[in-house]
Amino acid sequence: MAPKTVLITGCSSGIGLALAVRLARDKQRRFRVIATMRDTGRSGALAAAAGPALGRTLEIKQLDVCDESSIRACLDSVPGRHIDVLVSNAGVGMAGPLECQSLAAMQNLMDTNFFGLVRLVKEVLPDMKRRRGGHIVVISSIMGLQGIVFNDIYAASKFAVEGFCESLVVQALRFNVAISLVEPGPVTTEFEEKLYEEAKRADYSRTDPETADIFTNLYLRNSRDVFASLGQTPEDIAEHTLRVIEAARPPFRHQTNAAYTPMAALKHADPSGALVTDAFYKLVFKYDAVLRLSLRAIRLLRWKAQKVKEGARLLGFK
Ligand SMILES: NC(=O)C1=CN([C@@H]2O[C@H](COP(=O)(O)OP(=O)(O)OC[C@H]3O[C@@H](n4cnc5c(N)ncnc54)[C@H](OP(=O)(O)O)[C@@H]3O)[C@@H](O)[C@H]2O)C=CC1
Ligand SMILES: CC1=C(/C=C/C(C)=C/C=C/C(C)=C/C=O)C(C)(C)CCC1
After folding, report:
1. Is the CB of 226 under 6 A from ligand 2?
2. Alpha-carbon span 95 to 148, nearest angstrom
3. Residue ranges of the domains in the chain?
4. Which of 156, 213, 219, 301 is deepest in the core (most CB within 10 A)?
5. Closest-lying ligand to the alpha carbon of 144?
6. What is the ipTM score, two decimals?
7. Using a 6 Å cutoff on CB, does residue 49 contact ligand 2?
8. Is residue 134 in contact with ligand 1, taking CB distance under 6 Å?
9. Any idea which ligand is nearest the CA of 219?
């Protein structure tokens, strides 16, 4: 079978980079990867990780999801504009009290996370419909299903992504085009560090001292622990996404972190929303010590599992 052409956005770091490398180094050579990024000056890490795949099964192209002409130019440079799989991955995060965030920053986030996807789909879907085949894979988030305190704008952008895809999927199916949402929980990438850097620069005089205190001393501290205990690696997400891409009948939704499934299910268990709001309120304000203790226990278990794995490898087990 001819290799599938997969175009991925946001490949300078994190999930996009890991996925591009995973697909390009596929042992069965099933993919030809077009790894895109808005600034090709940032391609060093990808080129290094791709190794000999660069120039063979992987090529790097410029694409800014906020710029229609850059998307068009990139697609026009692909023979026959033929993309089998589009992976919409590029995205930015934002966390903190609303009062400390500028409207311009919020609009930039929506422009990247939501309209970036819309621009891509507008450009790629007509070709896929004409060919009666294709797959659009969207890196959404668990926050596309359930908001998390202080992530108001980011969660809104991922809800927008989910609503857009949920509506479009039925029409697309008529043309044999699949749409899949990949919904990770926390993933340890530059995304996390960028949030903390942003939080350091924020002007907390724009909010009241109590809110500033809850964000900096409760949320940020717990968030670090959540990433350290429950965070997946970008390589984990690449494996999950590969499974979605290679599925004979791709799922519409795919959660990557089982630890978050109950959280996302709560809202469906109680349509009034009281159950999930109450659970979050208690976790954040009442049982934060229990939360931290549980997260520490998980970290310890993970560390032990890692040591067992390393030991087994040293002893020659796979
Ligand atoms: N990390 C996490 O905890 C989670 C992340 N996600 C989602 O995963 C996706 C990837 O994030 P992740 O790998 O973690 O984070 P990274 O910050 O490591 O990667 C984000 C990528 O998006 C790119 N990007 C940002 N703006 C644009 C743009 N306008 N055009 C093209 N590329 C752009 C960045 O490029 P540049 O280097 O130029 O800034 C970078 O390559 C995002 O959609 C994010 O929302 C979902 C769940 C959890
Ligand atoms: C679970 C949980 C928390 C934090 C979760 C975080 C920080 C999740 C991050 C998810 C990301 C980054 C998704 C990206 O798309 C709190 C509020 C600390 C306490 C209550 C339980």
Report:
1. yes
2. 10
3. 4-260
4. 219
5. 2
6. 0.97
7. no
8. no
9. 2
Q: Which atom of ligand 1 is nearest to the CA of 186?
A: 3
Residue 154 designated active-site: yes
In the numeric block, which tokens belong to residue 51?
């190794």
Q: Whose CA is closest to atom 7 on ligand 2?
A: 223
Specify whether domain 4-260 bears CATH 3.60.21.10: no
Pair 119, 164: CB distance under 8 Å: no
Give the ligand 2 atom nearest the CA of 222.
18
245: amino acid identity, one letter? I
Atom of ligand 2 nearest to the CA of 144: 15
Strands (E), the chain: 4-8, 31-37, 58-62, 85-88, 134-139, 177-183, 253-255
Q: Is 183 in the pocket of ligand 1 (CB under 6 A)?
A: no
**Digitized pLDDT (tens) for each residue of the chain, 318 residues in all:** 899 999 999 999 999 999 999 999 999 999 999 999 999 999 999 999 999 999 999 999 999 999 999 999 999 999 999 999 999 999 999 999 999 999 999 999 999 999 999 999 999 999 999 999 999 999 999 999 999 999 999 999 999 999 999 999 999 999 999 999 999 999 999 999 999 999 999 999 999 999 999 999 999 999 999 999 999 999 999 999 999 999 999 999 999 999 888 888 888 899 999 999 999 999 999 988 888 888 888 888 888 888 888 888 888 886
Q: Which two tokens stand for residue 313?
A: 């490898």
**What angle, rounded to 10 degrees, do the helices at 14-24 and 234-246 form?**
50
Task: Compute, in angstroms, the gap from residue 96 CA to the centroid of ligand 2.
Answer: 12
In angstroms, what is the span from residue 267 Cα to ligand 1's centroid? 27
